Amino acid sequence: MRLPRSGAGWTIAVFGLLALLLGALGLIWPETQLRLLGFEVPAERAPGDYTGTFLTASSMASFNMGVYYLLAVATEWRPFYRFTVWFRLVTFTVFSIAVLSDVAPNRFFGVAAWEGLGAVATAAGLWWDARRAAGSGAADDTVAGPDPVPATDAVH
Question: What angle do CA 127, 133, 139 make, to 5 degrees?
C-alpha cells in the first residue's frame, strides 16, 4: 500500500483506516462498540431485539467503506475525494438531527462531529492541493510533488 500523495489523500486515509478498524471492532467486540457510541448494553436482549444484527450489518458496512477509502488513496482517486466531502456533510446533518430529536444519545453527536470535521478537512486538503498544483503549473486533477499521478490515469 502506498502512502497518500496529497493533503486530501491523508484525510481520506485517516478516515478509511478508522472506518476499517471501527468496523472490525464492531464485528469482534460489539458490546465495546455500543459503549463507545453511548448505547446501553443490557445483560440480556429481549426477543425481537435485533441490535446485534444491525450492529453486524453497520460494522461490516464500515469495514467495507474503510477498504473503499484506502483503495481511493492508493489510486489517488480525487473525484472520490470530492464526492466524500458532500456526503460526509449530509451524514453530519442526519446524525446531528438524530441526536437533536432524541433518536440517538448525546454521545452520538461525536460521530456527527467526526463526519463534519472530516468533510471540512478533506475540502481544505483539496483546496491546498489545488493551490500547490497551480503553483507548479500542474493541472487540477494531478498532484504536484515527487510522484504526480493524474486522477484519470490512476486506475489504469
Answer: 105
Buried b / exposed e along 49-80 (16+ C-beta atoms within 10 A): eeeeeebeeebeebbebbebbbebbbbbbbeb
In the block, residue with C-alpha cell 471540512: 120
pLDDT digits (tens, 9 = 90+) for 26-72: 999 999 988 888 788 888 888 998 988 999 999 999 999 999 999 99
CB-CB contact of 11 with 78 (8 Å): no
Residue 57: CA count within 13 A, CB half-sphere: 5
Task: Report the candidate in 136, 103, 72 with the shortest Cα–Cα distance to residue 128.
Answer: 136
Is the pTM for the entire model greater than 0.85? no
Q: Which contiguous run of DSSP H or E holds residue 109? A: helix 109-136
Cell numbers for 153: 490515469
Q: Distances in Å between the alpha carbon of 66 and those of 15, 58, 62, 71, 95? A: 7, 12, 6, 9, 19
